[in-house]
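lol ok so funny story. i was supposed to be doing the assay writeup but got distracted and ended up predicting the structure for this chain instead. priorities right. anyway since i did it might as well share w the group, maybe its usefull for someone
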Amino acid sequence: MAGTPVLWHIKLSHYSEKVRWALDCKRVQHRRRAPLPGVGTTPVALALTRRVTFPVLQLDGHAISDSTAIIAALEQRCPHPPLYPSEPAQRARALELEDFFDEQLAPYVRGLGFSHMTRDPKNFYASVLPDSSPLTRAVLLPGAFAITRIARARYPATHANEQQAARAKVLAAMDRIEAEVGPSGYLVGDAFSVADLAAAALSTPLLRPPGRPHLPSVAFPEPLQSFCDELARRPAAEWVSEIYRRHRGVSAEVRRGRARTSPRAAVSA
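and the output, tada:
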C-alpha cells in the first residue's frame, strides 16, 4: 500500500482529532503515526514540513500541515461525502465558522489544558499518552519534567489572568455554538459540515463526548475539572455529544496491513 496516506498526529490533540474525523468521515484508508509528545513531534514535523506543528498528512506525495488545509485537500480529492456545503453562501458560512473555532476556541482549549496538566509531570504523561502502558509512562517520566517546562513556555494561559481570559474565550465559543445551531441540529443548513466537525472536535478534550478516541482516563486537576464540569452542563455540550453520536463513526485507519472496515481503497489525485 505504497500510496496509502499517512497521518502524523498527536493522540490527545483536538486539531489531530479534527483531521482524523475528516479522514474517517470520508472513509479514506490511511495509516497513523504518533511520535512521543515533546520528544519526537518537533523533529518529525520539521522533517516533513519545516514547521513544528501537527497534524501532518502525507497525501499524493505531499506533506500537508494545518488541519484546515488538510481538510481542503481531502475535500478536493475525495468530495463524497461532502464537508463543504454546495450552496455558495452556506459554504462561505461553514468555512467562516471553521475558522472561528480554529482561532477563537482551539488555542484556548489547548492553553487551559496545558497550563494545568503540566503542573504534574506524571499526570501530564498519563493524559497525553492515553493509550500507553504504565511501564511506558514510567520510562518516560524523567524526561517529562523538562518537557512540561517547554510546554508551559510555549503555550499561553500559564498565569491566572491568562487562564481567566482563556476561559472567557471558551465560554464565548460555547455561546456561538448555541446561537448558531439551526432547527436541523446543524450549524449550517440541513446537513453535517466542516463547521459541525470543527466545533465538536475542537471542543475536546475539555468536553469528553462518547466516541472521541484517545481521551485520558484521569480527571483534570482543579480548577480545570470544575470548569469542564461547568461546560458539560451547557446545551453546547449536549450538542457536541449528539454530533459525535450521529457522525463520528468508525475509524478508517489501516492496521497491520488491513482496514478495520471497508473504506475507500485510495483517493484520486
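The CA atoms of residues 68 and 88 lie 18 Å apart. The chain is about 55% helix and 5% strand.
back to the writeup now i swear
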